[in-house]
Amino acid sequence: MKTATQAPSAPRRARRALLVSSAAGAAGTAFCSALLLAAPAAHAGMVTDQHGNVGYDTAQECDAAVLAGTARFYQPVTTRRAVRKAGEASVRPIRLSELASASAQAAAQGYSAADYSRGACDLGIRHVQGRYDITPELVGKYVPFSPDMRLNLFSDAAGQPVRVTMGQCDNGFSGNLPRPVPAAPVPKVVAQAVPNQCLATILIPARFETRTEQILKTPATRREELVPATYKTVTEQVLVSPEMSRQVPVPAELRTVAEDVVVRPAGTRDEPVPPTFKTRTEQLETQAATTRVEVVPATYKTVMQKVEDVPAHTIRSVIPAEFKNVEERVMIAAATTRTETVPATYRTEVERILVRPEVTQYVPVTLPMRGVPEQRLLQAAGVRAQAMPAVMRTVVEPVEVRAATVQKQEVPAAYEIVTEQVKVSEPYREWRRGRAWVGQAIDVVPLRGFVVDATGQFRGYKVEGRTKVAAAAGGPSRGIIDTGITPADNAQLEDDVMCLVEIPAQYQTVTRKVLKAPATTTDIAVPAEYRNIAKQVVVRDAGVRLVPEPARYHTVWRQEVDLDKARELGFQIAANGEVTHGPGGEPLARASAVAGQPGVAIDRALAPDTYVRAVRIAAEYRNVNRYVVDQPATVRVIDVPAAWRTIVRRVEVAPARVEDVAVPATYKTVPTRVVDTPERTRVVAVPAEHQAVTYRELDTPAALRPVSVPALVQRIEHQEVARAASVRDEVVPAVYRTETRQVIDQPASTHWVDVPAEYETITRQVKVAEAREVQREVMCETNAAPDRIMAVQHALQGAGFNPGPVNGVLAQETLNAVARYQQARGLPVNGYLDIDTVRALGVAPN
Fold this sequence. Notes:
mainly beta; 7 helices; 61 strands
């Protein structure tokens, strides 16, 4: 169910309202139409959720923020896929501004589909299944949505739109379509008795302040802190072994004696003499001489011999019949007539046709460019900390690691988490329109009888958004009712209700820690500990060395028009640095300024800021050869004579017959192979075979000869005792060792430490002023002549705010520039070109 409808539509570029003005000395009043300079109004109080999304108390405040360009559009914080409901056949993604095509569906909800081009301000609601369709802080607030926001469009089987949801999270709106942002409402202007003066009733929105409060999160307390024992190092001499005497053995003394010993006496021995041999060679017969019989084969020769080839015989031959050729003339086609078509004749005519009309083409202009270097900081100057490691050495010694002592152990304090609700706004009651509020309503009143008093209240409670409803034909005004949901013709009042809703107090959840048990200590007996330990002794402490790091830059070149060279080449340059004319005086323009104009050809690949010049391309014509009938086609009848042909026939002269013919025998000569010499044998002598054999014979037999062997003498050394072994007494001195150990210097103790309280800072919006209506002097047709409007446009342009064409016409660009000027100068952005703004621009109002 929708909770708001758009205000009556009005022209977008300017609004006309009824002004009542009075002339000096004139009695009575006269009506005239005045052109009000409507600019977007600034928003008043808004609520921000934890994600940075905002909501406004009224639809008018939300609309004003969107029209002023200061609205922070809603960004979904969850992600869910689109789910179709019963009766929905398809879903596709669209943008919010594309809902302008759903005019019938928007009209069914009382909206204008064209208003979606500005965006939407929709009431945040809860989902029927219990989940939020928007963040909880924005429920009941009017939330702005961008015209570029992605939506899910659900359609029925006929392709008609049914409803839309948010594209990222599939969250719904207050109705099937969101409430669009309407055009700025027609202002209410009343006349004063002062000549050339127009006053407008302006709604000053409620004012809010951001207040910061300190909330106690953890109370102050005390804790007992353990002070550990201190130790000192003591060095002392420890007796390892006492002084003693011991007997040391004295070994015996030996001497070496050498003597010669005959190992083998002299003698003789028999030495063998080997035998000698000689070699003798002789020839031995290995095979005796003999004979063998060889076969001599027969020889042959070729003799030519005549033999009968075919014997004599008789053959019967057929003599064919004899024929002769006879010529005859035969008719092949009878005489007749035929119809012949005489084709038409044509002549060639040359016609000139238009191939391409005359167009104006914009071509890029080559301007002298120059490279401008820029130094960009890559890394700021600073210092780098370089770690210097400590130098250690290992010492291993047996020491008393820890003496027996009593150690106090800290028992930490125990806390519990307490969650509290802190009130950030008081509850209040408010009249809101729509049957969606009936379930929460304290009182329900039909909309027809709902009239707001002059203070903006009904039965003592304020109404959410209000405007004056036009009087019915011939009747009184119906008072001030909800402007966001009631059309100006007041035709739908019977179908809705106003509900008095209790807006509960707003709370913020604060979590803090509460002391449950204070910190204490307990004594624990720790026995002495001894062990051999290896410890690291610091030779040099670790440190940090700061190394300066210089800033690093890199050079970036960018291209810009060299205006000095352009002037030298003849280009004309305006005061603002724009190149206006070329060397030949031809006008130049930016590509973006001429693109899209009718009859203009331009390369779409050009950058928008490229300078181009107009080149006239003449129309193109072409000669076309066309064939024109010279003599039309005709038909004539032609006589066709009979056709004859001469043929040749064969006529038999003598019939065929049979004759017997004697064929004599035939002979042929063939070669014949005969024996020339018969086969025979012969005896062949085979000589004897011999082989050389070498013999080895004994020349001198083996013998023995005596050989003298001398005696073998060897020198041998041996040990003799010079002095016998003994013992002697020796004194061993005592041995001491230096030991270092740690002893308790100060025993462990405890002391109490104050723990300060912890506070949490919360920020909330507090309304410090209610919305009110005031009258301000504004410019209208009575005091806004075209020259005065041109003066305002010149002043805006001089202040750096582009008002569009300076032509004395109050276009939307001029109104937007007024709003930007008011916001930049700290003036009230009230929706009008008021007299204070005109004076601030340095323009005389009259």
